[in-house]
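> call design_seq(struct)
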């Protein structure tokens, strides 16, 4: 059986027989003349089209993602420092309330908050007050960020 290219009347002279597609035998594909061949399945970029657009979008998005990641890590570092300072102040106030000597309270607070912590111990009326301050480590230290905490406790009777 012979068929002609349906696209043009001039192709009738160069008509080629029909052949079946290999994967699907029920489909029939025209074999067209060289003037009307279908393009290959490989996609060719249009001139001045979107070639490299994904790379450009990735190059624009990557610095934003890295900036957000660094910001999250800096906030996490500052939060951790604040929690450590608050724990040191609380432990120091509890130790003073139980009657520990001042040098032991300072060493306890420095052990919890870190070596660069400044510890202040005082009395406010019938209460003891411990204040702990420590600079936030890392890049936030360049802008002079300090974590501070204060804890107050009532001294135990007989201490």
């Amino acid at each position: 059986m012979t068929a002609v290219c349906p696209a043009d009347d001039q192709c009738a002279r160069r008509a080629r027989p029909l052949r079946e597609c290999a994967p699907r035998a029920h489909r029939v594909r025209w074999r067209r003349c060289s003037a009307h061949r279908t393009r290959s399945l490989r996609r060719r970029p249009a001139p001045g089209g979107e070639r490299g657009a994904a790379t450009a979008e990735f190059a624009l998005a990557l610095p934003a993602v890295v900036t957000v990641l660094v910001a999250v890590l800096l906030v996490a570092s500052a939060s951790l420092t604040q929690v450590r300072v608050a724990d040191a102040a609380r432990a120091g106030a509890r130790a003073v309330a139980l009657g520990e000597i001042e040098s032991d309270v300072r060493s306890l607070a420095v052990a919890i908050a870190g070596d660069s912590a400044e510890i202040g111990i005082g009395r406010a009326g019938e209460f003891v007050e411990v204040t702990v301050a420590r600079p936030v480590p890392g890049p936030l230290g360049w802008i002079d960020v300090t974590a501070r905490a204060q804890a107050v406790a009532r001294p135990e009777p007989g201490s």
